[in-house]
Amino acid sequence: MSDVDPEVGEKRRKNHQSHGTKKRCQGKNSMNGEHKESILEKRKELPVYKARSEILFECRRHATLILVGETGSGKTTQVPQFLFDAGYAKHGMIAVTQPRRVAATSVARRVADEFGCRVGEEVGYTVRFEDSTSHSTKIKFMTDGMLLRELMLDGELRRYSTIVLDEAHERSLNTELLLALVKRLQKSRQESSFPLKVVIMSATLEAEAYSRFFLDCKIVKVPGRMYPVEVLYTPEPQPDFLDAAVVTCLQIHLEEPRGDVLCFLCGQDQIEDAAKVLQERSRALPPSCDKLMPCPLYAALPPSEQMHAFAPAPEGTRKIILATNIAESSITIDSIKYVVDNGLVKARIYDPKHDMESLHEELQNACIPISKAQAKQRAGRAGRVSSGKAYRLYTEAQFEELSAAAVPEIKRCRLSSMVLQLFVMGIDNLMEFEFMDTPPILLLTKALEQLFLLQALDKNKTLTDLGRKMAMLPLEPPYAKLLLSSSKFSCSEEILTIVAMLSVDSIFFNPAGKREEAARARHLISSADGDHMTYLKVYDGWLKSKKDREWCHQYFINSRNMKKVEDIRNQLQGYCKQGKIPLVSCEQELTAVARCLCTAFYSNTATIAPDGKSYRMEVTAQEVYLHPSSVLFGRRARSVVFDELVLTSKLYMRHCTVIDVGWLAELVPLLYKTAGKS
């Protein structure tokens, strides 16, 4: 395969488009010659474009290429197009993975625009619960989880000639698994005369580790287009990061020259709170001051609203983009000149000793400190188009205490979903499977134990029919088991709603200054049987109100999240129909729902202690408490089942439902047999 110049590449695009999508040229995304020329000129200005010939030359010579490009180098949008122009999509699609759906969808739109097509034609994307591809698609952006699902269905991935693994430096669990599986797949594809080209892209200089894993493959380094960034620290540690972030954003707006602000926060709740406070305080700004436009940006935000963060601000307006860590490296916004870094990131930590996956809240709203590498990434966002400033809401001494890099998820997360996927692909000898970073044996052991108790594996560590079905659902094993078991309890319609509700950020919101009013409203719509039953009541009420926004406002319910719940529920319903899972309702017999919950969350059951305040977990005897957000908080429910533990000064149970603990011996007999042997 030979290298091509831009003109030949453009001709290849035209030939493909004329054969595949003639009608496209009449559509809204068709480009006139002047616009095409303008886009090509902008592409040529990107640092990665200068390395185009070297990248394609090394791609021809090596099966695997490691590409290190600083954030803003253009690697994410340009490399897939280089590969297409060089003919790599002739015999199969080019897959490009991203760790987050926001990145997959936004980058696909950008590349489609540069390509001159609608999203879903030559350039498309696939994310959980959404597929925007067609028979014409040649460059397919997707989350790493979606490519893993395809691997379970087609172990050879014969639809793809090339796989680009982007943002590999994030070391997510899915990316870690893909690195191992793609290496294995490359070998088998080489032997079957249909070689697989692999490009691994990273924004940080951990390239040598990737190269060693892929047998000393070639590394190409592309410099970013970085301008100087002045880094500023706080003189003292901040007691309230959210307030400090809002104050800093307003200070920048009042005192600094024009340029948009990127402010890193933890999760949807913090972002929505900050947006509201900024909006309120902006009304007090002097008339001579530019307008201020808060733009939330987080994974659960609908794509149409995410686009506000990318679109140019109106004249005389400064955007303040309030984002989670998705804005660290997955996406690029050229207008950013100022960064406000809270130094925190939302993360799950699994404690195998207590079989507990928890969100750590002891710092700020379920966040833990970022690494030095992440701090550098965040600061770098301010130097894309001109010199900028990074305001770190922590002291220089606190920065020096940060770890050099984040701990890979494979070393700190629950691995049951990953292990189940490996078993479906016929990989059951976990000790011999080659990971880039070997997971701790205790994590693997606990994963096998959980899958056995969920009946996904039998006592011989063999995948069961139930386990295979569980793996086909885009859910964590307990939720997959919950959904698959629901028809036996005649409550699949109710479980569909509950699982969809638990798949989004909180449906309730607590606006500052109205928390008591919100609590009273929530009490009116809550169920005495617990949180899961409350979710059923809320969803039913929402449907009966005809999805009325005013109804949502009355009960302090997030209408946007309710729409998301409906979309996810419809998608899961489609999976149920494909899997021939009967869709039945228990009507008002909600005991069936509680019993079904126990089959999946058997280890998350607890009984009230003699003091009447704390609870004792049935499996581990751990002391736990009802979370203040639970509708059961302040009540004396005898026994409960819950979804997750949250660690603050105490261990709190979230999403709780009242149960009869006597059900467990009947519903999860394996648990009691195992406990008896212990």
Radius of gyration: 26 Å
Beta content comes to 15-25%
Order of adjacent strands in the largest pleated sheet:
4-3-5-2-6-7-1-8
CATH class of the largest domain: Alpha Beta
- Structural domain tally: 4
How is the main sheet built?
8 strands, mixed
Percent in helix:
40-55%
The first-to-last residue Cα distance is 61 Å
CATH architecture of the largest domain: 3-Layer(aba) Sandwich
Oligomer: single chain
Number of E-state strands: 23
Per DSSP, the total helix count is 26
Mean pLDDT: 89
Question: How would you classify the helix and strand content by structural class?
Answer: alpha/beta
> Which regions are unreliable across 5 or more consecutive residues at pLDDT < 50?
19-29, 361-365
Gross geometry: globular
Assign the CATH topology of the largest domain: Rossmann fold
What does this structure look like?
The longest helix is centred in the C-terminal third of the chain and has 20 residues, at 559-578. The chain folds into 4 domains: 6-222, P-loop containing nucleotide triphosphate hydrolases (Rossmann fold); 229-409, 3-Layer(aba) Sandwich (Rossmann fold), CATH 3.40.50; 414-455, Arc Repressor Mutant, subunit A (Orthogonal Bundle); 456-664, Four Helix Bundle (Hemerythrin (Met), subunit A), CATH 1.20.120.1080. The radius of gyration is 26 Å and the shape is globular. 42% of the residues lie in helices and 18% in strands. The strands form 4 sheets. The protein has an 8-stranded mixed sheet with strand order 4-3-5-2-6-7-1-8, with helices on both faces. Strands 9-18-13-10-12-11 form a 6-stranded parallel sheet, with helices on both faces. A 5-stranded mixed barrel has the order 19-20-21-23-22. It has 678 residues and is of the alpha/beta class. α10 (241-255) packs across α11 (267-282), α17 crosses α18 (477-485) and α19 crosses α23. It contains 26 helices and 23 strands.
